[in-house]
Amino acid sequence: MKKRVAVLRGDGIGKEVTDAATAVLDSIGRRFHHEFEWVNGLLGGEAVDKAGQPLPEETIKICEESDAILLGAVGGPAWDNHPSHLRPERGLLQIRKHFELSVNLRPVQAFKSLLAVSPLKEEVAEGVDMMIVRELTGGLYFGEPSFHDNEKAVDTLVYAREEIERVVIHAFELAKQRRNKVTSVDKANVLESSKLWRKIVEEVAENYPEVEYEHMLVDAAAMKLITYPAAFDVVVTENMFGDILSDEASVITGSLGMLPSASLRADGFGMYEPIHGSAPDIAGQNIANPIGAILSAAMMLRSSFGMEQEASAVEKAVKSVLEDGYCTNEFKNIGRKVLSTREMTEKIINEIECELIAD
Ligand code: NAD
Ligand code: IPM
Ligand code: MN
């Protein structure tokens, strides 16, 4: 199969981890006889510097002409004091909105081989396997008015029925393929938008009698994620809560650098990116963990291209390298074998190509 992928490496470690993901997919191409055509586009801070805006028209065109989008991360101190419309993060929000990528899937799985390095006790982290379904194109991130001056600041949290319905339905559909449980997270004791959210969850749930569901307030959910994370199956929530809870949940796996994500449009078109940012503190040092980006590429194979076997091959290779005791720099001082970004990528590619010899 031939697939054309828009590659938006972005800023900081975004570039390093995206290079890792495309190298791994090239090895999948060799093993399974696919051809991936990578087309680079500018996004974020580099786009501001080179094209005067965080999401140039040219990048939109490249993405429109591609079968999927692979993204690194954007942002960094160089652009932190830019006006809102010239911030790298604005480009990310614009691309999500432009392509109507309203459902963001953030799977959180505890790798057995990393249980000992989770900040949680082994017995608490063991067996964690949840899917955070984050609404991605509404809520506080996009509501108008939104402004600040010296005396006043306004953000608007607005949700239309249709925006809530589509993400909640997606969550219930996913639960049917998993363990039949949905936890809907809101702040219905305070927020009007959460009251509508809760009502819609109850309506949707009527069509899924086999799926057990519960409502949970976001503050309690933040606590439960740490005390009893294995109890969660599918978690569905609005944009900002999903952003915060997914960073929190990522550390159950040992590192923010491990977590992949898929942002999907209703027709299945998708953008794939690790959940972490551009990590300016470690950028350019070849020490970033590329696994979140590599697992995002695996999600792309599965969701956008229907390549189940190929996606599993990537996931199996990652698992096997971790089981061999290898890790990246954030796990140093815990008796594991520390690899650079490129060495980790090579190890994963070797695993994939070993199987090629075995096939
Ligand atoms: P961050 O996710 O970039 O980093 C948080 C911490 O986690 C840092 O200590 C970093 O070194 C570490 N970390 C992150 N990814 C890692 C990896 N793959 N391997 C090893 N360690 C990793 O968050 P931040 O520092 O709050 O934000 C930095 C910039 O990134 C900001 O400009 C922010 O807006 C942006 N950001 C972008 C995205 C995105 O593009 N999707 C996501 C989050 C933050
Ligand atoms: C993420 C990031 C973004 C978000 C920022 C950079 C706009 O934190 O993808 O999780 O908040 O959605
Ligand atoms: Mn985030």
TrEMBL record:
GO cellular component: cytosol
UniProt KW keywords: Amino-acid biosynthesis, Branched-chain amino acid biosynthesis, Cytoplasm, Leucine biosynthesis, Magnesium, Manganese, Metal-binding, NAD, Oxidoreductase
Annotated residues for binding of substrate: 96, 106, 134, 219
Pfam families: Iso_dh
GO biological process, any: L-leucine biosynthetic process
GO molecular function: 3-isopropylmalate dehydrogenase activity; magnesium ion binding; NAD binding
Entry keyword Magnesium: yes
Cofactor annotation remark: Binds 1 Mg(2+) or Mn(2+) ion per subunit.
Catalytic activity line of the entry: (2R,3S)-3-isopropylmalate + NAD(+) = 4-methyl-2-oxopentanoate + CO2 + NADH
Cofactor(s) recorded in Swiss-Prot or TrEMBL: Mn(2+); Mg(2+)
Top EC group: oxidoreductase
Quaternary data: Homodimer.
Similarity-based family: Belongs to the isocitrate and isopropylmalate dehydrogenases family. LeuB type 1 subfamily.
Function: Catalyzes the oxidation of 3-carboxy-2-hydroxy-4-methylpentanoate (3-isopropylmalate) to 3-carboxy-4-methyl-2-oxopentanoate. The product decarboxylates to 4-methyl-2 oxopentanoate.
Full protein name: 3-isopropylmalate dehydrogenase
Gene: leuB
